[in-house]
Amino acid sequence: MIKNKTFRWTIQSAAAAGFVATTMLSGLAHAGPTLDKISQRGTIKVGVGTTPGFFAPDSNGKWQGFFIDFGRALSITVFGSPDKVEFTSSSPQQRLPALQSGEFDVLLSGVTVTATRAFKLGFHFGPTVFYDGQGILVRKDLGVTKAADLDGATIGAQSGTTGELNVADFFRKTGKTFKAVTIEDTGQFIAALESGRVDAITQDSSDLVGKRTQLKKPDDYVLLPERLSKEPLAPAIAGGDDRWLEIVNWTVNATIQAEEWGITSKNVDEFLKSEDPAIQRFLGVDKSFGEALGLDPKWAYNVIKTVGNYGEIFDRNLKPLGWDRGYNNLWTAGGLLYSPPFR
Amino acid sequence: MNTSSRPRSLRGRAGRLSSRLWQGLFGTRYNTIVTIVIAFLLGQIVLPLIRWAVLDATFTGTSDACARDGACWAFVGAKLRFILFAFYPPELQWRPLLVIVALAALLVASAVPRFWGWKLLAAWPASVAFCWLLLEGAFTATPIPSNQWGGLPVTLFVWAVCFAAATPIAVLLALGRRSRLGGLRTFSIAYIEAMRGTPMVGILYIAMLIVPMALPESLSVDKMLRAMIMITLFWSAYIAEVIRAGLQAIPRGQAEAATALGLSYWRVQQLIVLPQALRIVIPGMVNLAIGFLLATSLLAVIGIFDLLNAARASAADPVWLGFYNEAYLVVATVYFAICFGASRYSRWLEQRLAEGMRR
After folding, report:
1. Residue A318 contacts by C-beta under 8 Å, 6 or more apart in sequence?
2. ipTM of the shown complex
């Protein structure tokens, strides 16, 4: 009897605690523009991940990588200095809730733009900075040059990911057979490939490129050209601050536009003498443009001078790992990068 | 006669030892088979390991110099600083180093029964505050935000501080659970069971995501501090159960006798029950502490670069890509050294205290 009573008490107090917690949560949703918080704090809080080339600390403990450079660019646009930014690593499971709770001002952690995230979760996305997609890394001695040739191959995929489903869909479409081996820990992908347990592994190609360089003989393996899924990676911010969104948008656009004009960190000073009114507006030679935007007229100049244009960011961080520009090239060079006009 | 007897007996002992060894290894057919099988397995494991770690290894140079087949100790040379201190500014490295020294000294001092007393108790909050100020960059021009802290100092700091802070709470919870006051008892039971029924990752997510939403906008508590408070509350439930076991081991008659002498409840606990109970549970507490040290690596899920997470990140640098084995070995060595030390200490203390208890 006493035990029973205690049990009921336990349930009741647990329920009461749960009720209090939920009311507190619903009553205290965050409001107020992100940009106010940023200028008050004096730094931008950026959520990142850890993938070689995209974001990783160097030996001195300084963050380096493709997305890191865009974070520095944002810091320049807002504060005029590349160092007013705090990078914090976050796991894929917690990055979106952390953005929602205001822990980060912007996620530069390789978030894929999806309809659900925009509509249901209320996130806003900046321009796509990297067009990723699921790829297949195969042993060269299979003699396969395109994914449709794979027949009866053993393919390793990470369990519980969309990658596993995508590869099944792909083979259903082509009508060929394959044998799936699910691998829990992506760290074991390399071992599985090298031991011959699988003929190929499939994952986002951004990961596969990094994995390929870790193989004992990287040249014995090739990343097939097909992409089984679309993974456009873009900066993500919480809804409710339009101006912050525009700053993110146009900082990315500036790096793309600069590459289109051929402006690099090295020659940007020569372009200050340009007669082209569009370039004069862009670099702040004509001050009225930047002032009309409410930004430092020199913001784009400072971004390009310090971080470089899109091509320079790409070459510095991803080219050494064996990345080709592919889709991530200017629209004028057959890629998908296109900046709206700076007018 | 006397002088010559010692060497002979030594030789005799050595001879007995070697014959016993021979007996143990090859004495019976069964022993011989076991010996050969184990020697074979050891050869299979140890020889390639030596080959990897020593013969084929690269000790200096850049990542290009590292042969793919052997260990790359040059990686450890280049990355040890990052693994130990993560993002802490290199020019201020003496600060986390001093924190490690201070915490180690505090832990060692706490381990020696001779130092147990009020002074040591007072040294704890003082040292913790000192370490926090050091890490925070106090007395310098630029404060160092906690997202730049990392590596071994963070692991040790979170471990030692949370465990130390959780213990008094745990004592109260354990007493509460045995209390005659129904409300207090129910609260203690509910608290302990709720905490023990939640995974530590869940607790960390709450600290990271839900606590900031529940706090008023103006009050922003540092992420590290939030995590440490939640971990303290979480660990206190586990420690409380260990302490309760110690409380139950004290015969009820002692407390009753003390009460009959006119001592108040708190005096009874302070003078009679707790000194004995806490002594009994020390091995259990050390066991928990070892488990908790390893659990601090879960801090990685909320983006804190503890020792393990820093090691993992160090191998993602494109310049030194993929030397995970070497990085993990370094970390494993550090964890092992601490845990092994703790477990040896626990055995020593157990024996020492047992001597004291002997009548």
Report:
1. A53, A54, A66, A209
2. 0.77
